[in-house]
Write a structure and sequence with these properties.
11% strand; alpha/beta; 8 helices; 169 residues; 5-stranded parallel beta sheet; binds shikimate-3-phosphate; 54% helix; Rossmann fold
Length: 169
């Protein structure tokens, strides 16, 4: 069913947001938009280069701007794992009421993302450090979400089906 307002997928790195967003878009015939892709388009460089050349705060500014621009979009919107760090972003997301948190055990997350060089925030981090980062962010994800799905033992297809069912898509 076509959606008539934005639907946001949030969650920690490696939770499957981008893949689930794509699968859900295919199943429901809705467009999908990835905030990280939009940030890269806007800056005309990769996220890794943005972090390296301008630092995290510049990336966060762009990310927040792109998030706000998405308000009138009728699409499945996949977000970067740190979008919830900013209080105003959390308020913005909460107001939409269509926020789905893809939850995933940090150990599984670590095995999925390892030390992916394209994810600057986990470069050279141990599993323990990533676990701590996850713990710090968990309350923020919970605060924003209208629906939480534990994706730890689910396939991309199963997660997409669950969202379809819960959101009547
Ligand atoms: C980040 C997650 C990344 C990307 C950036 C920062 C984070 O997106 O936005 O590297 O702070 O968790 P994914 O969650 O899609 O990996």
């Amino acid at each position: 069913m076509p959606i008539n307002e934005s639907l946001y997928l949030i969650g920690f790195m490696g939770a499957g947001k981008t893949s689930v967003g794509r699968a859900l878009a295919l199943k429901t015939g809705n467009p999908v938009m990835d905030l990280d892709d939009r940030v890269e388009e806007e800056a005309n460089m990769s996220i890794r280069d943005i972090f390296e050349q301008y630092g995290e705060s510049y990336f966060r500014e762009l990310e927040s701007k792109i998030l706000r621009d998405s308000i009138h979009k009728k699409a499945i919107i996949t977000t970067g794992g740190g979008v919830v760090l900013n209080r105003e972003n959390r308020e913005f997301l909460q107001k939409t009421k269509r926020v789905i948190f893809l939850k995933c055990d940090p150990e599984v997350t670590f095995s999925r993302i390892g030390d992916d060089p394209l994810r600057p925030l986990i470069k050279n981090k141990t599993a323990k450090e990533i676990g701590e980062m996850y713990k710090e962010r968990l309350p923020y994800y919970m605060e924003c979400a209208a629906l939480s799905i534990d994706t730890t033992h689910l396939s991309i297809d199963e997660i997409a089906k669950e969202i379809q069912k819960e959101m009547n898509l």
